[in-house]
Design goal:
This protein has 14 helices and 7 strands. It is α+β, with helices and mostly antiparallel strands and 334 residues long. It has 2 domains: 1-252, Helicase, Ruva Protein, domain 3; 262-333, Lysozyme (Orthogonal Bundle).
Length: 334
């Protein structure tokens, strides 16, 4: 692995083009269920533990939309949602994400001897695919390996929740981001139909992210690739497809081959605090101008490179980094 410090900085920020049309019928290995009567008002907007999703009015309305807009089979969709239910533990998990920790507490979660060794082993086992991904997409192996390492420990922890139930729980019982997750649920069903997957089978994170790289359904549909040419985009069991898909995601989001991502920086004087970015945004200062205001990268960086200054919470005080275009525009920001 190259530069564990840099990979750790990429890991700090971890979890998009119009999708193609999928019109193949979805296959559900269960017997069709008859039309269900309207749900009670109690089930119209809040999940009841153990209640099949199909009994909810909001889910019934969603099914009708999928039939009207995407020509799904209503009976098959009702059969699918009759075997799924909301998961209250997902709502609880959304309220305590690890990303809310300060940098000094967040970093050790990912920068450990075990994870670094896992990265070395994953890289060695998939060296050919990683090299080809760099050739095709311009993304060096260390960044692809870092993403897969932080997201799933190189495929060792892809999530325990049914993706359908995770997305439905957040689409119908998490008002703050319901619109986003409702769209992801729609994309998941289109993905399952397009790839010939039983929608009840895939497992993922509590937010519905899937596979080695934890792609959300809309990203899967737009950026996943069949990197080994076997006719399937399999991000759960095929590390080659996962490697190509992560690299393609970087590439499509503006990755600039051969350019830096981030660098630790030293600060001095009293002018640099005004330059600190309070959110990750398009870099707006040249390295030359930053040097003139007391900010110097600790690695060799061209004076013409555009950068942002970030302040991280270290255990013994603030740490400073410069983020460049490839930091701003890499997948963990989207």
């Amino acid at each position: 692995m190259k530069s564990p410090i840099l990979l750790g900085f990429l890991m700090l920020l971890s979890a998009c083009a119009p999708p193609v049309s999928d019109q193949r019928p979805i296959t559900v290995p269960v017997a069709p269920t008859p039309d269900v009567p309207p749900a009670s008002a109690e089930g119209a907007g809040t999940g009841i533990p153990g209640q099949p999703l199909v009994e909810r009015r909001d889910v019934q309305a969603f099914i009708r939309e999928m039939v009207a807009q995407h020509r799904f089979n209503a009976v098959q969709l009702r059969a699918t949602f009759s075997r799924a239910q909301t998961q209250p533990s997902i709502i609880a998990a959304m309220s305590r994400p690890a990303e809310s920790k300060p940098w000094h507490a967040y970093r050790p979660i990912f920068i450990s001897a075990k994870r670094i060794q896992g990265g070395v082993e994953f890289w060695r086992a998939n060296a050919a695919a990683l090299a080809r991904a760099e050739q095709v997409y311009g993304v060096p192996p260390e960044y692809v390996v870092a993403i897969i390492g932080v997201e799933t420990q190189y495929g060792g922890n892809m999530g325990k929740y049914r993706v359908l139930e995770a997305l439905a729980t957040l689409a119908f019982d998490y008002p703050r981001r319901a619109a986003y997750f409702r769209k992801e649920l729609e994309n998941f069903l289109l993905l399952a139909r397009g790839e010939g997957i039983d929608p009840l089978a895939p497992r993922g994170s509590y937010a519905g992210a899937m596979g080695y790289g934890q792609f959300m359904p809309s990203s899967f549909r737009s950026y996943a690739v069949d990197f080994d040419g076997d006719g399937h985009r399999d991000l759960w069991r095929n590390p080659r497809d996962a490697i190509g898909s992560v690299a393609n995601y970087f590439n499509k989001h503006g990755w600039r081959a051969g350019q830096p991502v981030a660098s630790p920086a030293a600060v001095s004087g009293g002018r640099y605090p005004a330059l600190i970015s309070r959110r990750v945004a398009q870099p707006q200062y040249s390295v030359a101008s930053l040097r003139g205001q007391g900010v110097a990268p600790e690695e060799r960086i061209s004076d013409g490179q555009m950068a942002m200054l970030l302040e991280l919470q270290g255990r013994d005080g603030p740490k400073y980094w410069l983020g460049f275009h490839n930091f701003y525009d890499h997948p963990l920001q989207h």
